[in-house]
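Subject: design request, 350 residues
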């Protein structure tokens, strides 16, 4: 039987969400829905302002070359805390940390940072095949999609490497189209993992044609477009694939915002064209900020300038000037990411 809450949830069109004031969102979310953070489950309603693609530290040395990440954990903790405190002061409540295994993922550090800062942090399972497979462990070349999925599902069921900390999403990385056999194998492994766990699939993608290939492959393996987050969608500078994949139901993650004027203009253009097409409900925005681990000399920002905050300080004012409403901004920064990262099996329609 439909209870009132469920009825409200299914009877509101997605477009109507953007018109709802924040207080009402709690009434459209299901009671048992959740997002998985490094400290356990939170309700989507409680995720607040949510940056869906950021990093703390990434070690670019390469898979299995050294024990990663190469830093003293206390130094890393002390280095990053001021940034998290600043994020919190700016109203951000949740970040998805997108550094995969074999490229510096450190879930124990993430838990420490989350506990000390009060920021919710999501970590991930999955492998990053972009950059000529430099970050792919040996076993991934030999094993089948089913075997890889069982490794990722073990992290989901038992926690990562004995820590008890669970991933909140699947993160993959692939290059430009056409997809290579190993990249397809990882995407199929992600489909299997999603259908058993409900973890959403975020894929770093080289170009728009590759994103379309990913979506088609996932669908062939039984996964709805709504379970796919197209990471670095800004790589498609025509915007053509944004509209096509958003229309199918994929999440379009515009996540390299750096505060430069050129980027402000480009992101305003992409976001307005998605809004004009009635597709703002499928858009995510983030910075992809973070720090590289430099052996013996500490940490270096991926990009110069302010870290993790330019969406709030530069993009939002520009979007408002370009015609978006406060409700639209809330949709982009609060509601959409809470829906994108909700743990939920999204099977393809038969
Ligand atoms: Zn990234």
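Subject: RE: design request

Done. Sequence follows.
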């Amino acid at each position: 039987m439909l209870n009132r809450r469920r009825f409200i949830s299914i009877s509101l069109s997605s477009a109507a969400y953007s018109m709802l004031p924040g207080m009402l969102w709690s009434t459209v979310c299901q009671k048992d829905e959740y997002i998985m953070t490094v400290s356990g489950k939170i309700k989507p309603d409680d995720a607040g302002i949510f940056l869906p693609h950021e990093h703390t530290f990434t070690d670019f040395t390469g898979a299995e070359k050294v024990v990663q990440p190469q830093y003293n954990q206390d130094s890393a903790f002390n280095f990053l805390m001021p940034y998290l405190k600043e994020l919190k002061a700016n109203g951000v409540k949740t970040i998805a940390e997108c550094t995969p295994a074999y490229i510096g993922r450190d879930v124990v550090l993430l838990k420490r940072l989350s506990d000390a800062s009060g920021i919710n942090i999501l970590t991930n399972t999955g492998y990053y095949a972009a950059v000529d497979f430099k970050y792919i462990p040996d076993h991934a070349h030999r094993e089948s999609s089913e075997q890889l999925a069982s490794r990722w599902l073990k992290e989901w069921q038992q926690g990562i490497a004995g820590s008890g900390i669970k991933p909140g999403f699947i993160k993959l990385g692939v290059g430009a189209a056409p997809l290579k056999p190993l990249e397809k194998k990882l995407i199929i492994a992600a489909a299997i993992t999603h259908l058993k766990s409900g973890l959403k699939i975020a894929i770093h993608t080289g170009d728009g044609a590759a994103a379309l290939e990913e979506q088609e492959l996932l669908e062939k393996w039984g996964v709805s477009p709504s379970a796919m987050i197209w990471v670095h969608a800004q790589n498609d500078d025509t915007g053509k694939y944004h509209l096509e994949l958003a229309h199918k139901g994929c999440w379009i993650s515009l996540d390299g915002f750096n505060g430069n004027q050129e980027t402000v203009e480009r992101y305003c253009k992409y976001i307005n064209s998605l809004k004009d097409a009635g597709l703002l409900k499928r858009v995510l925005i983030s910075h992809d900020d973070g720090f590289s681990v430099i052996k013996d000399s500490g940490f270096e920002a991926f990009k110069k300038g302010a870290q993790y905050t330019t969406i709030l300080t530069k993009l939002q004012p520009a979007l408002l000037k370009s015609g978006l409403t406060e409700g639209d901004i809330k949709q982009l920064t609060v509601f959409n990411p809470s829906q994108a990262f909700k743990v939920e099996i999204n099977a393809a329609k038969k």
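The two ends are 24 Å apart (CA to CA).
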